[in-house]
Amino acid sequence: MPQITFHGAAGTVTGSAHLLQIDSKKILLDCGQFQGPWEVEQRNYEHLPCNPRTLHAMILSHGHLDHCGRIPLLSKGGFKGPIYSTPPTRDIARLILLDSAHVIKEEFQWKRRKLTRMGITAREPLYSIEDVYYSMDAFNHQMGYNQTVKLGATPEIRLTLRDAGHILGSSQVYLEYENEHGKPQTILYTGDLGDGGRPLMSDPVEPVQPVHTMIMETTYGNRDHKTYSDTVAEFEDAVTFAMKKRGTALIPAFALERTQEVLYHIAEMKRTGRLSKKIPVFLNSPLAIDITRIYHTHSEFCCMKLREALQKRQSPFVFPGLILTETVEESMAIHSVEGPKIVIAGSGMMNGGRIKHHLKHLLWRENTSLIVVGYQAEGTLGRKIIEGAKEVQIFGEPVAVKAKINTINGFSAHAGQSTLLNMARKASPKRLFLVHGEPEVSKAFAEKVRKILTQTEIILPAAGETYKF
């Protein structure tokens, strides 16, 4: 009898890791880092979901850190099996994990002190750059969308990846097998789903029936997003405000997907004349620069319009005035450029990276427009700013918050409630596990689904719980 154990993203939106066992085969669906406050992040230093040596395979739905961020620990623990993913997911995971290894090394000393006080011995960082390179050897099974492969025999399990519409290369995972009575069964793990109607990614494909067991994300299961057209208009207004004041539009960069979407809309503003082609746009994030190049390499995984433009070498991410600042010296030189200007800098939650240097120079200026386009976790500098702090500490110094603060939530790459409900209704599974959501959000979504799928067993698993089906 198959069983699944939820080792992450159960009662939370981070640390995705679901261990599936079908007969003797153990398959891990994602292996992500826990992110957020320390009481959540410390779970990364606990034991892995299972003995990596006993795993037959791992399937990576997409390259976000909360889905791939503990993969190096698998190889450190003796994992010898293959990792299945799309090619862009492999390339993105490599960059994300290398960046993570740098951050982990930099933060290790203070984390070790905290762990020691908790009785946890940490003699070295969670993983190193070398560990990341070793783990990449396992990414030897690359798949395109709608391609089916067999995960060995006895029992025969067939894997198919389909477009999740979330970020470049993101996948819904289908696993097909026969139960003890010889009847075909299908498991659908949605990974993270997009909301559709976006300029870079295709809409998530609808479920292919029949689906017997569904493991579904619920990040925004309790609400829908603002319309995308309203979101774009809000973004353009925020940029225009700073330009008219001859100031700076400062955008904290989420290197994967959000930066590329922001570049796309700035390019549109320049193309249509709503923004002068002479205004400099500094992309001050080496990670974001490298990830943007992956969009060109794997254009076949983008939506049709973007794919055609990239294949014709008409990139919407390249436009007059764009300046890529990769070195520290180039980054520092931005401060000497008078406005109007646009600066996109990491990190997205403003807790580290080059964005903090720009905040120190610009947050106290009234002609600065701080444009926050992504989620700000509790306890982060970004969260304090958007919650109305009049003064914040940056590099140990007090900085007044006088900039115009723009919080734009509609760029989210996650599906809203309506899209999630439609996916659940179209799949109409026998049992539905709801994961990757805060408890109150998943509960609210479950109540909505019960009214639509009256015959479906709906389960909100807790961390560490095992279910047989």
- Give the spatial strand order of the biggest sheet: 6-5-4-3-2-1-22
Tally of structural domains: 2
Summarize the biggest pleated sheet: 7 strands, mixed
Structural class: alpha/beta
Q: What are the segments in which pLDDT stays under 50 over at least 5 consecutive residues?
A: none
Could you name the key traits of this structure?
single chain, 469 residues, Metallo-beta-lactamase, Chain A, Rossmann fold, seven-stranded mixed beta sheet, globular
Structure description:
The protein has 469 residues and is of the alpha/beta class. The chain folds into 2 domains: 3-223 and 413-468, 4-Layer Sandwich (Metallo-beta-lactamase, Chain A), CATH 3.60.15; 228-407, Rossmann fold. It contains 14 helices and 22 strands. It has helices at residues 38-41, 65-68, 71-76, 87-117, 129-135, 228-244, 258-271, 286-297, 304-311, 328-333, 355-362, 381-386, 417-427, 439-452; strands spanning 3-8, 17-22, 25-29, 57-59, 83-85, 141-142, 148-150, 158-163, 171-178, 184-189, 213-217, 248-252, 281-284, 322-324, 341-345, 368-372, 391-394, 397-400, 404-407, 431-435, 457-459, 466-468. The strands form 4 sheets. The protein has a 7-stranded mixed β-sheet with strand order 6-5-4-3-2-1-22. Strands 7-8-9-10-11-20-21 form a 7-stranded mixed β-sheet, with helices on one face. Helix 14 (439-452) links the parallel strand 20 and strand 21. Helix 4 packs antiparallel against helix 8. 45% of the residues are buried. The mean pLDDT is 94.
